[in-house]
Amino acid sequence: MSGRTPSALGEIIRRQRELAELPMRQLASMVGISIPYLSQIERGLRAPSEKVLHAIAGSLRTTADALMAEAGPEQGGAPTVLQAIAADPDLTARQRQALAEVYASMTEVTIARRHRERPGV
C-alpha cells in the first residue's frame, strides 16, 4: 500500500510499542495475534484489519483514529488521492484504510500490467 498505510502506520505502532516498553511478544499476546503478524504490521508489509488495529490501539492506550492521524500522509510521497482520503473528516479510520487499500490495489494492478506489456521496464 502506498502513502501512509501500512508503512507509516506500522512505524507509528512500533514506536508506540517501544515507548510503552512492551516487547513484541507481549503486545502480540495482548492483541491476540501472532508475533510474525505483528512484525509484518510494524514493518509495513501488512495492513492490520480494523479489529486488530483497534485492539493494538487499546493495548497501547490510544485509539485507532489517533494512530491513523499520527501516521498522516507521508511527506512528498503520497499521491493527492491518498492525501484527500487521509484529510477527509467525514471518513472513519476504517473507511480511510479501506479506500487507501482499494486505491493501492488498483494502482498495483496497473503498474503490473504496464510491466507485462513492456518487458524489461
Q: What does this entry show, briefly?
A:
This protein has helices spanning 7-19, 24-31, 35-42, 50-59, 64-71, 80-87, 93-117.
Could you characterize the architecture of this molecule?
There is one protein chain. The protein is mainly α and 121 residues long. The protein contains seven helices and no strands. It is globular and about 50 Å long. The N terminus is likely disordered.
Number of strands: 0
> Which fold name corresponds to the CATH topology?
434 Repressor (Amino-terminal Domain)
Q: Beta fraction of the residues?
A: under 5%
Structural class determined from secondary elements: mainly alpha
Query: DSSP helix count?
Result: 7
How are the secondary structure elements laid out?
Blueprint: H1 7-19, H2 24-31, H3 35-42, H4 50-59, H5 64-71, H6 80-87, H7 93-117
Helix pairs in contact: 1-5, 2-3, 2-4, 6-7
What tags apply to this protein structure?
mainly alpha; 66% helix; disordered N terminus; 7 helices; 121 residues
